[in-house]
Amino acid sequence: MTIKTYNFPTRIMIGEGAADLLAAQLQAKSIIRPQIVTDSGIAGLEMFTILMSKLQLAGLEPAVFSDFSGNPLESHVNAGVKHYKKNNCDSCVLIGGGAALDVGKAIALMATNAGTLFDYEDEKPGALPVLNALPFIVAIPTTAGTGSEVGRSSVISDDKTHTKKIIFDPQLLPKLVIADPLLTVGLPSFVTATTGIDALTHCVEAFLTPMEHPMCDGIALEGVRLVSQALVTAVQNGSDIQAREKMLHAAMMGSVAFQKGLGVTHSCAHAMSAVFNTHHGLANAIMFPACMKFNAEAVPEKFERLAQAVGLQTHSAEAFINWYLDLAQKVDVPMGLQHHGINITDQLVDLSLADGCHNSNPRKVSREDFIKIFEEAL
Ligand SMILES: [Zn+2]
């Protein structure tokens, strides 16, 4: 097996079979009782059972917490903290997509710090500082999309109001990522496609953000290139390990790059998820072309570089958007809001405008602009 290891700044071990290294990595840190945080769907999979039995065979005592699925809530975190303490755990291993990582990071925070979770809400007046060190966090992604495994935030919703709250602290950054493409081969093709387009959108929006950050720009462009090479193959032939591995890289690169910020596509997507419960990756996928068309006139030179990154002969925004439409067709994600039961409502437009992501968009977006963009995406 060929596992590549690098620090960026997270230590990342990536390659086919990398998950087999988990036990040794934990033992090297004198960990005995890791809390395993995963959603109930993954806890029922064979690959998960195998992973747990390997830990037990190595003499570890994993305590599995999987009493949650879907949108992460504060009550999930509270139950997880109780579970962590009751089982006398000494670390957190987060296995899954965005939800498991969000819940697990928040559990790790509250396992050693006082108060309630939302006392630590980012930018809240009077928010508590994170005073105590968090337990060792390992993240094992099972999708290639959010890239949350290399991120320093956790998004948890209030049980009553359903408002999403962001907890942000450098300590939430997992200390080790184990990215094993074998864990993603069982993903349904639609999930592979939409999470992969989410990763693409992260890279593209981060690149288009006006903030000067050449390091992130380089990572974003290479992430775009990897998606152009691997997404269609990963969707059409789910067991292609090389394509799966490239998508895992692209997802992490998107997450690293969007420290710069995101853009108008994500504002639309967040509103669509809130109003119509649209899957995040799908929402981005549908909105991407209209949003890019809107952005094209503001930063044509950046679109030239995007077109170059995906290997096009013609370096223009139009060519890049057409490349995307062709990609969406190949991975079987139909465009058009009406195909997905979404219509333009005042609430949808209001929430898009209220979302913070478009503040870092290369072109200012007004309420009228949002309406025009949604109409374009119908
Ligand atoms: Zn996203």
Write the layout of secondary structure elements.
Elements: E1 4-7, E2 11-14, H1 22-28, E3 34-37, H2 40-43, H3 46-57, E4 63-65, H4 74-86, E5 91-96, H5 98-112, E6 136-141, E7 153-157, E8 164-168, E9 176-179, H6 189-208, H7 214-236, H8 241-257, H9 264-276, H10 280-296, H11 300-309, H12 317-330, H13 346-354, H14 367-377
Parallel strand pairs: 2-9, 3-4, 3-5, 5-6, 6-9
Antiparallel strand pairs: 1-2, 7-8
The chain binds zinc ion (ZN).
Poorly predicted runs: none
Biggest pleated-sheet summary: 7 strands, mixed
**Cα-to-Cα separation, first versus last residue:** 47 Å
The top-level CATH class of the largest domain is Mainly Alpha
Topology-level CATH name of the largest domain: Dehydroquinate synthase-like, alpha domain
The portion of residues assigned to helices is 40-55%
Bound molecules: zinc ion
**Arithmetic mean pLDDT:** 96
What is the second-level CATH architecture of the largest domain? Up-down Bundle
Provide an overview of this structure:
The model has no long low-confidence stretch (mean pLDDT 96). This protein has a seven-stranded mixed beta sheet with strand order 1-2-9-6-5-3-4, covered by helices on one side. A two-stranded antiparallel ribbon has the order 7-8. β5 (91-96), α5 and β6 (136-141) form a beta-alpha-beta unit. The protein has two domains: 4-183, Rossmann fold (3-Layer(aba) Sandwich); 187-377, Dehydroquinate synthase-like, alpha domain. α4 crosses α5 (98-112) and α10 (280-296) runs antiparallel to α12 (317-330). The longest helix has 23 residues, at 214-236. It contains 14 helices and nine strands. Helices cover 49% and strands 11% of the residues. The protein has helices at 22-28, 40-43, 46-57, 74-86, 98-112, 189-208, 214-236, 241-257, 264-276, 280-296, 300-309, 317-330, 346-354, 367-377; strands at residues 4-7, 11-14, 34-37, 63-65, 91-96, 136-141, 153-157, 164-168, 176-179. The N and C termini lie far apart (47 Å). It has 378 residues and is of the alpha/beta class. Residues 198, 201-202, 266, 280, 284 line the site of zinc ion (ZN).
